[in-house]
Each structure stands twice: as structure tokens, then as C-alpha cells.
Give the backbone structure.
Amino acid sequence: MRLDLSPALSKPELLAAPVVEALSKLPDADAIQVAPIDPDLADTAAFCEAYDVTLEQSANCVIVVGKPAGVYAACVVLATTRADVNGAVRRLLGTRKASFAPMDDAVGISGMQYGGITPIGLPSDWPVYVDSRVLAVSSAVIGSGIRGSKIVLPGTLIASLPGATVIENLALESL
């Protein structure tokens, strides 16, 4: 991994405002690090190639919405998988349909940049569903709320975030 890591709370300029606020309240915040990256390389495949991070170390946080109720949730899955939005996620939300939230909604409601959304600092009424495979990653790399940095933290810490629930088979293997 070729990231220049620093304790996350020591670099608030590398975090979205809701992430800084949430981190300041987390008991394990000292285990969370942040690294600056080129914002043009924030998307998973480009990031992993440029920074020598494997897809198995990289996690994605996607925002989904259940319809017709308009219930939002976050799903954290490894980059080697994809969230089972029409199966597991829809059932968890208790809705007839589920889909990825429109970009404008995800950005506007979360206060984070598209391509940098993280489960840390999301609205407190949103459930955070974490695929069980994320827990096995000792140093998971995920968004920081902005495109210009990434957070690195133990996968088990993601599962202990407020509102988080670990779900077996939340994600499907990517093709």
C-alpha cells in the first residue's frame, strides 16, 4: 500500500464535515487513518491501480433507497463484490423495490462527495448494512467523504459504527 497515512482526526481538511463530527465521537477514532489521494483517481479501480491497494482491501459504501417508502440506507461491501440491492437489501428495507440512490440525493443528504461516501457520519436514522466479508479485512480502505482522500481502518471497526448491522451475503461476488 503506497498511501501516506496520518491519524484521521489530525487531518480534518482531508475529511468531509460530517465525517469529522462523527469521528470526534467515536471511541476507536485513534484506529482510523486518512491519506490524501488524487481526486481524479477516487473511483475504486483507478485508485487501487495507482496506489497499489488490492480490491480485496478496498471497500465501497453505496447509498440505496427503498421504494415507494423512500427509506435510505448505506451498504458497505468489498470492491470484489457488489451489493445485492434487489435481493438482500430490498428485504432488509422491507420495501417492494430498492435501487441505488440518485447521485444528487446521496450527495445532498449525506453531505459527502460522490465517489467518496463513507459510512462514518451518515444521517443517524440510516441503517448501515455491512457485508460480513468486510470484517475479515485488517486494513480496509474506504471513502473519507471527499474524493481527495481515503480512510484506512480495521474492517471490524466498520461493523461497530453507529447504526451498523453485519449481514451475511449482503453482497454478491462480482463477475
Q: What stands out?
A: The first helix runs from residue 17 to 23. The chain has a mean pLDDT of 95. The chain is about 20% helix and 30% strand.
